[in-house]
Amino acid sequence: MGMNPDLEFVYVGDPMCSWCWGFAPVLDRMEEVYDVPIRFVAGGLRPGPDAEVINDQMEERLAHHWHQVEEASGQPFDHAFLKRRDGWKYDTEVPAIAAVTMRTLDPKAVLTFHGRLQRAFYSEGVDITDRSVYPDLLEGFAVDPDEFLRRFESEEMKTKTWNDFAEARSLGASGFPTLLVFDGERYGIVTRGFVSADSLLPALSDWLLNQYSDEAEGLFCEPGVTC
Question: Could you read off the pLDDT of 143-201 as tens digits, one per residue?
């Protein structure tokens, strides 16, 4: 990073936010292209008291959004959860706590894990509001499962997660995904809401080159080279 050690992107998202699932490939491309860290903040879509029971009206509303996301992003969706009428709540607190727990134990893996949770819920029909599914979801991650689950169940991680929700609000992230850039002093909004990689990356690259022209060589990864 050369002369810009404080430069970072800040991604505010939620594992059960459909437009965030659509945005997941954009984050993957950003990690490939830019030698700039991406800090994850849990946004809090419908956590705890804000959770909603799936009913006909909610199914119609969510299905509309999911079809929009699928069309805009190409990301796959399994609509089985929208058919549930057993009192199941669309409660985003548990997966948010899981993401914050992973960030605590392995910060470099949090976006990959966040994407794993999204894929499990949206395309594999896994109920990520159920804590019992998490041992399987940890497969492939270099964290101790027992330590993860211990922290996952703790009041400390719940508090950290709700602190994230408050931080998201303080950053002006009223909807998700929200992507910001922080230069060590100021935050700037990159996007509020979904935008494709083809639209976002050229504009973002131009902005970075304009703002940091003296150090631009260190901001971008060479094709085929791991940053």
Answer: 999 999 999 999 999 999 999 999 999 999 989 999 999 999 999 999 999 999 999 99
For residues 77-85, give the mean pLDDT. Answer: 94
Residue listed under structure tokens 């959004």: 65
Rounded Cα distance between 97 and 113, Å, is 12
CATH number at residue 53: 3.40.30.10
Q: How far apart are CA 141 and CA 88, in angstroms?
A: 29
CA distance to 41, 121, 204, per residue, from 170 (Å): 11, 28, 23
Domain assignment of residue 176, yes or no: yes
Would 224 be classed as within a structural domain?
A: no
pLDDT of residue 216: 57
Residue 169 lies in a domain: yes
Which amino acid is residue 104, in one-letter code?
A: T
Residue 227 lies in a domain: no
Q: How far is CA 109 from CA 41, 101, 106, 184, in A?
A: 14, 11, 6, 23
Spatial contact of 123 and 84, defined as CB atoms under 8 Å apart: no
Domain count, the chain: 1
* The token pair that represents 127 in the structure block: 């109920």
- Which domain covers residue 124, as residue numbers? 8-218
> Is residue 221 over pLDDT 90?
no
Comparing CA positions, the residue from 225, 154, 192 lying closest to residue 20 is 192
Q: Give the Cα separation of 122 and 178 in Å (integer).
A: 20
- Can you say how many angstroms the Cα of residue 84 is from the centroid of all Cα atoms in its chain? 25
